[in-house]
Structures are given as structure tokens and as C-alpha cells.
Amino acid sequence: MAPKLVHVDGFDAVVKALDEHKGSSVVFVLFCGSRTARGVSWCPDCVTAEPIIHESFKKCPDDHVLIHCTVGERNFWKDKACIFRTDARFKLNAVPTLMRWGKPQRLEETQCTDPGLVDMLFEDE
Amino acid sequence: MAASLRLFTVLGPAQKFQFRIFTKLVRPLSSGSNQYDYDLIVIGGGSGGLACSKEAAQLGRRVAVLDYVDPSPQGTVWGLGGTCVNVGCIPKKLMHHASLLGEAVKGAAKYGWDVPQETKHSWEVLVGGVQNHLRSLNWGHRVALKDKSVDYLNAYGTFVDAHTIKATTRSGKETILTADRFVIATGMRPKYPQMEGAREYAHSSDDLFSLQKPPGKTLVVGASYVALECAGFLTGLGYDVTVMMRSIPLRGFDQQMAELVIDNMVSHGTRVLRGCVPQQILKQASGELAVTWQRQTGGPGSAVDADDSDEFSTVLLAIGREPCTKSLNLDVAGVKMNESTGFIVGSEEESERTSVPNIYAIGDVLQDRPELTPVAIKAGKLLARRLYDGATEHMDYVNVPTTVFTPLEYGCVGLSEENAVQLHGEDNVEVYHAFYKPLEYIIPERNHQQCYIKMVCSRQDEKILGLHFLGPHAGEVIQGFGFAVKCGATRGQLTSVVGIHPTCAEEVIKMHVTKRSGEDATVTGC
Ligand SMILES: Cc1cc2nc3c(=O)[nH]c(=O)nc-3n(C[C@H](O)[C@H](O)[C@H](O)COP(=O)(O)OP(=O)(O)OC[C@H]3O[C@@H](n4cnc5c(N)ncnc54)[C@H](O)[C@@H]3O)c2cc1C
Fold first, then answer.
1. CA B251 – CA B416 distance, rounded (Å)
2. Is A117 near chain B, with CB under 8 Å?
3. B187, B260, B330, B519: which one has the fewest Cβ atoms less than 10 Å from its Cβ?
4. Closest approach of chain B CAs to the CA of A102, in angstroms?
5. Mean pLDDT of the region A42-51
6. What is the pLDDT confidence band of residue B307, given thresholds at 50, 70 and 90?
7. How many Cβ contacts (< 8 angstroms) between chains A and B?
8. Interface test with A, best of B78, B139, B145 (most A CBs within 10 A)
């Protein structure tokens, strides 16, 4: 067994995934820019952060869940009215954002590329 | 620097030791103290300790901060940030605000709002909102320490010698750390009286802000600002609250103002018992707490004329706070403290230096210094700059403004009237004063009897020695005037300023009646 990593794409999918993991486990959510035709995210910080976050998450207990959500293409995200920015549950300001669901712990942008901070977020209660 | 930080962050905790060696190589500023693990270890991650450690780290030093919260007798613990963030200023001000909102809602009908006659308040929602905010502050402090490369240890520090400390975690794991210098910033915790039932059943401000159940009928023991503030907001939130004090309210503050604060609290619905000392707290089968107290109507020290008792759901002890110095093993390091009070006495030349040259103290643990967050922060930053940046500026502890957040706020800066008279003699002190009516109180017919301002001046040159303001938003009002007093302003200079109309603050500028004249100090007209 290992902690569970779930990949979802878009708003409805992340809401559904959060619903499925409600209550029982410790849930983290990572929001990143979607991959372009070239196979990597359009957001350079996301590209750097993803492997660091995935690696750090491996050290978590088995009942922990990381939902890795891609928010969409660049133009969709850059819109100030983007649902990820406006929805009261997420209120995102930046990608990447890594958060502990239901708790105030959150890291944004280059903070997500700092392994020390990422480790701390996964460990902090 | 940036490169070395990056490197640290890719190393796991196991490689910490190698990291140390590495930083020693890349941080030439640190040379001279390489025989130690750190340049600076700060004991206590509260207002002062965090400010000092971050400042020192920004100046290129290797810094660690130890923060550990001893559970309260009721078992309450909290995260990084110290008293102010977790069990002091922040939750207190939020609960005060919650109480003021209730007042505003009551008066809103007169302003045309259709609000229900009976409004209900949910303690659980308030505590939930407050605690959630505190958790985000805890997290913010952790991120800030990491960002600035300060090593954070959630461990209790005790001295081994003047350059060595033992850090003990909650699970009992011990680590020995050495440092060139230390800063003691361990703050204070609530005092408990020698009374049956105190530790078992009573709460303190350490527990109140995270209390899971509504406090219900509450007895607040004490007359400190913490006691009065808590009693004030609990009353405002709708609870039946009694304050029990042994002698005078707000010791150290201007006593005329303190009495007005009490008058206002009484008219606001708080019951106040004076000359009373609790003797015992017993838990009833119902879960209620039976409190017995002695009443001394002849004032403190007089014969006891009666024993009284009553039942309460919550007893909040706020009889004072004591510095967290007793278990630091200060003696093995050679640091002297005042044996009876536990405060650390700063040296003559440098307020924050202890009796041991490489060990400093800041914040609440220092004797005879204002116990306030901005004081601890400023002293911590200035100390770091003196130690590591060649700065010469010292903390100035004189004319520090402050505010008591009772339902009617009391803000002040400078001397109390009695201290001014004591220092300068009655003939050399002129006191201007005014009873005023906040405009917004008129329509809802709110009590304005205690809205009062006084300015204590030197009679010769009219220099402002002290300013005292009792009224709405006193904290916001006094901050600006604090600047004037700090700059040595005279009453003449102050009255040369044009007021902002209509405000309460303009009444400070308009004051013209002296106490000596005996004229009516009530402000009239526009
Ligand atoms: C109810 C209440 C309301 C207040 N309201 C205000 C206000 O409105 N405005 C204002 O300016 N001030 C207010 N204060 C005062 C303010 O909180 C303090 O002045 C301030 O926190 C002092 O900072 P400090 O750094 O000295 O200590 P603290 O902030 O108390 O931090 C000390 C830290 O050290 C830790 N510690 C202690 N011993 C050890 C050890 N051996 N090893 C490791 N860690 C240790 C403690 O657990 C704590 O976390 C209030 C205080 C209270 C209790």
C-alpha cells in the first residue's frame, strides 16, 4: 500500500473526487495548469513542482489522499472569472496551489517548488 | 545565499548535519562562531522570538527557534506563534468585535433596519471562525520561518550551560544544541491561586478562546485587563457574567479611567463584586461549579464580614500572569532573575542583555517593561540589528500607547494622572478633560456616560505627559495621538490641529476645560 494519488481534470471532476473522499481520510489537493500538446503543463512552476510534490507525498501514511487537479488551459485559467478563482471552496489565486483540504495550510507558486515547504505541508496537522 | 537555501531545501532532515557544514562554508558572515551549531538560538516562538529570529536570519546568521506549548491545566495546547496569536490579542480582539457587532445590531432598528427583537449568538460558530483563523496564522508563521531559513524546533528548551541548550520534544526526545548567543523570549502564562478546585475546574484565557461549549453563566476572577476584556465580551455575547476582584481594577492604569471602565461594564450588564476573594471551587453532581468566596467590605486586608457562594458553569481565572523562566535552568547558564517574581532583569546599558553577556531576553519575560506584542517585536528586531548589523538603536520603552478592549475601549499613552502628580507635584500638572457624546450613540440612545477624555499636561510648558481616551475605537484614536506624545508635543501644538468632524477623536483636540477650574467638562453643541 501507499498513499493514494488521484488525477482529475477540471472543476466538476475535482468536486466529485473531494466528495468521494469526504470524511474518512486526510486529503490534499494540488491545482496545476493542464498539459499542452507538447505534453507538459503551460505553467513552468507547475512543471517544477509536480515531481517534488509527488515525491514528498510518497512519504505520507497510507490513508492520505492527494488529488492532483488540472485546472484547464492557460486562457481559461487567466480569466478573472475562472470558477477555480471564484468558487468559495477553492478561491485560488495562483497555480500551482497545494492545499490541505478543510484546513488553512496552503502553498502557492514557487512555494510549491520548495521541498522543505512541501514536506512541511504534508506533515503539518 | 539563494543557492545555499535551495540546497538546504532539497536535503531531508537526515542530512541536516551536512547542511550545517555547507552553510558554514558559504556564509562567511558567520565565521568566528563556527564552533557552535548556531549563531543564535531563540527560546520561545512568540511575538518577540519570531521577530528576532527572522531578523537575525535575514542578516545572514544561522538561527534556530524553539517553541513549545505546555498544556494548560485543562489540557489546551496550540500552534506556533505564542500568546498573542493563539491565546491573546488576536482571538481576544475578534471576540470583542463579535460582541460589538451584537451591540450594533441592537441599535440598528433605530436606524431603520428590520432586525428581530431577539437575536441569537452561536458560540460554536464564533470559536470555529476564530480557531480557523488562528490555524492559518500558525501555518503562516511556519512558512515564514522556512522562507527565511530559520530552523524551527517544536521542543522545550532548558539551559545546560551558557552556550548549550537541551531541546526536549513532546515525545521526550532530547537534542543538545549549542549557540554563540541566546535570546530568551518565553513569555508569560496565567497564574493559578492556591485554591481547592482551581487547577481541576477553572479555565484561564489559555482555554477560553477554544472552549468547545458555550461558557454559560461565568465567574471571572481578577481585575487585570485580561479579566475585564473577557468579562466584557462574554457579557456582550449574552452570557451572565460576574467579575470578582480583590482590590482595584486595572492596576498600573489611571485609576479614574479604570473606575469609569468598571462603571461602563456594570451599565453594560456585567456584575462586579469588589473586595472578594474566592476560597474554593467544587464540582456539583449537575456539572455546575460551586464557588465560595470571602467578602471584605472594608477593603482589602479588612476583616472578613461574610462568606458567599454561588454556582457557575464556567470559572475564568485571570488574576495575573507569571514569566516562564522557572524551568529554563537559568542558574546553570548564570542568568540572574528576580527570585520572587521570576522576571529577568535587563542590564543598565542594554535593557535586553541579561547578567550573562551572550544571553539576551525580550518581551514579557523582562522586568518592568510593557507586556505588549509590538513591544516584544520591536525589541526583538532592534536587538538582532544591534547584534548582527552594527546598528546602535535601542528599544525605547517610554510612551508606549496601549488599549484595553473592554466594551467601551480605553486607550492611553504616557503617564496616568496619579503618576504625573507623583513625579511632578500637583501644582505642576494641568489636566484637561471632557465628557463627550459620540454622535452615533444618540439615535439608538446608547449609554455615553463614561465617554471621557483627559489630557495630563505639564503646567509650565503644556507638554503632554499623558493622554487617556475612553470611547469607541479608542485603539484607532490613540495610535495617532501616541505619535504626537512620543514627539514631545504640547497642548498648544495639538490644539493648532484642525479636527475631523464629526468624530470622537476631534474631542481630544477641542478639550479646553481644566480639572482645576472646576467647570463642567461636558461637551455641548456642535
Ligand atoms: C488574553 C490576552 C490578551 C492580550 N491582548 C493584547 C493586546 O491586545 N495587545 C498587545 O499588544 N498585547 C496583548 N497581550 C500581550 C501579548 O500577548 C504579549 O505581550 C506577547 O505575546 C509577548 O510576546 P513574547 O514574545 O514575550 O512571548 P509569547 O508571545 O508569550 O511567546 C512565548 C512563547 O515561548 C514558548 N515557550 C515558553 N517557554 C519555552 C521553553 N522553555 N522552550 C520553548 N518554548 C517556550 C511559549 O509557549 C510561547 O509560545 C495579551 C495577552 C493575553 C494573555
1. 11
2. yes
3. B519
4. 10
5. 95
6. confident
7. 27
8. B139
* Domain ranges across chain B: 33-190+320-398, 198-319, 408-510
- Tens digits of residue pLDDT in B194-211: 999 999 999 999 999 999
Instruction: Mention every residue, 6+ apart, whose C-beta is less than 8 A from residue A81.
Output: none
What is the predicted ipTM?
Answer: 0.88
Instruction: Indicate yes or no: CB of B142 within 8 angstroms of CB of A114.
Output: no
CB under 8 Å to B1, separation ≥6 — which residues?
B26, B27, B60
Distance B261 CA to ligand 1 centre (A): 25
The answer to whether residue B24 neighbours chain A at the CB level (below 8 Å) is no
Output the nine-digit C-alpha cell for B387.
547584534
State the best of A48, A111, A120, A125 to mutate against chain B, taking most chain B CBs within 10 Å.
Answer: A120
Alpha helices in B148-218 (DSSP H): 198-201, 205-208
The answer to whether A83 and A46 have CB atoms below 8 angstroms apart is no
Domain B198-319: CATH class, spelled out: alpha beta
Number of domains present in the structure of chain A: 1
Helix, strand, coil content of chain A in percent (nearest 5): 40, 25, 40
Q: Does B136 touch chain A (CB under 8 A)?
A: yes
Domain ranges, residue A117: 4-123
Which ligand 1 atom sits nearest the alpha carbon of residue B155?
43
CATH number of B33-190+320-398: 3.50.50.60
Q: Which atom of ligand 1 is the closest one to the Cα of B69?
A: 47
- Strand B241-245 relative to strand B203-204: parallel, antiparallel, unpaired? unpaired
Confidence band of A25 (pLDDT split at 50, 70, 90): confident
DSSP symbols for B239-273:
--EEEEESS-SSTTS-HHHHHHHHHHHHHHT-EEE
pLDDT per position as a tens digit, A65-118: 999 999 999 999 999 999 999 999 999 999 999 999 999 999 999 999 999 999
Report the distance separating Cα B310 and Cα B464, nearest Å: 46
What is the CATH number for A94? 3.40.30.10
CA–chain centroid gap for B480, Å, is 20
Q: A65, exposed or middle or buried, with CB in 10 Å at 0-12, 13-18, 19+?
A: buried
Domains B33-190+320-398 and B408-510 share a fold: no
Q: Regarding the domain delimited by B408-510, which CATH topology (the fold level of the hierarchy) does it fall under?
A: Enolase-like; domain 1 (3.30.390)
Ligand 1 pocket, residues with Cβ under 6 angstroms: B 43-49, 66-69, 82-84, 88-89, 92, 156-157, 185-187, 205, 226, 324, 328, 363-364, 371-374, 376
Among B6-15, B28-37, B330-339, the least confident range: B6-15
Under 8 Å between Cβ of B44 and B67: yes
Query: What torsion, rounded to 10 degrees, do the Cα atoms B470, B472, B476, B481 define?
Result: -40
Q: How far is A116 from chain B (nearest CA, A)?
A: 5
Rounded CA-CA distance B479/A57 in Å is 47
- State the Cα–Cα distance between residues B240 and B269, nearest whole angstrom: 8
